[in-house]
Write a structure and sequence with these properties.
Elements (H helix, E strand, L loop, with lengths): L1 H18 L15 H20 L3 E4 L2 E4 L6 H14 L1 H27 L6 H14 L2 H30 L4 H28 L4 H21 L1 H14 L6
Antiparallel strand pairs: 1-2
Helix pairs in contact: 2-3, 2-4, 2-6, 3-4, 3-6, 3-8, 3-9, 4-5, 4-6, 6-7, 7-8
């Protein structure tokens, strides 16, 4: 009987170390005490504000329809990816809301500039007309950008952080591809739907062209720049003094 008890107990003691669950390490994120977060946030805000101004102009390359902010805006998402990966969702959300607030402030500033009485000579009247035509539609563009960027960038950052919680420091390229594709699709559909009438896009064919070109270009550029984005994120991880090791 003693030998049977020892044999029955043996599998439990020998299997315990091998089958014990290893706790998953928490994803690494940095605090925002260093100067890097502020620099990234400032760059994102400037890019979004300039994109809003550029988006008031419709642009055509043959049959391709887009707007004047097409070459800038994807970089705001790239910066959002960097902030999400380094600082986490909470700080990415803070960057999004701060950028929105600054965009609203810029739009209100344009309104005040246009409303101020200008010179009445021919040159002054021409300048006033140019300001109205250039900056006048921006409030509608800002509204489109606010709603689109809020939804798209929030989903983008959330996917980045959720995947990082599962993958740790591995498979960064997968996080960048997955988050960018979903976030940019939501952003593009919302923005184009609201901004198209202001820009001068009419008809379903022209609108579909605008949406498709915008989405393909934005996602394509971000995918093309994934090696660069990966290097940038790696640099911040090595130089950000508060990034957990």
């Amino acid at each position: 009987m003693p030998s049977l008890q020892n044999n029955a107990a043996a599998p439990k003691t020998s299997a315990t170390p091998e089958t014990a669950a290893v706790p998953k390490a928490a994803p690494r994120f940095a605090d925002v005490g260093s100067r890097y977060y502020g620099i990234l946030l400032a760059c994102m805000a400037v890019i979004v504000i300039l994109s809003n101004i550029g988006a008031s102009k419709g642009v055509m390359f043959g049959p391709i329809v887009t707007d004047g902010g097409f070459f800038l805006f994807p970089f705001a998402y790239i910066l959002g990816d960097v902030i999400s990966e380094i600082y986490g969702f909470k700080m990415a959300r803070k960057a999004i809301f701060t950028t929105f607030a600054l965009s609203i402030f810029a739009s209100l500033s344009y309104w005040v500039i246009i409303a101020l009485p200008g010179f009445t000579d021919d040159y002054g009247v021409a300048k006033q007309h140019a300001l109205v035509e250039t900056l006048g539609p921006v409030p509608q563009i800002v509204l489109a950008s606010l709603l689109a960027f809020l939804a798209g960038q929030t989903i983008n950052s959330l996917i980045m952080v959720r995947l990082k919680a599962r993958q740790g420091e591995r498979k960064l390229w997968m996080r960048l591809m997955g988050s960018s594709g979903v976030g940019e699709f939501i952003d593009t559909v919302i923005f184009c739907t609201i901004a198209a009438p202001v820009i001068g896009i009419v008809g379903f064919g022209m609108f579909a062209n605008y949406v498709l070109v915008g989405f393909v270009y934005k996602v394509g550029l971000q995918y093309l720049l994934i090696p660069v984005t990966t290097l940038v994120i790696g640099w911040f991880k090595r130089h950000e003094p508060t990034y957990a090791k």
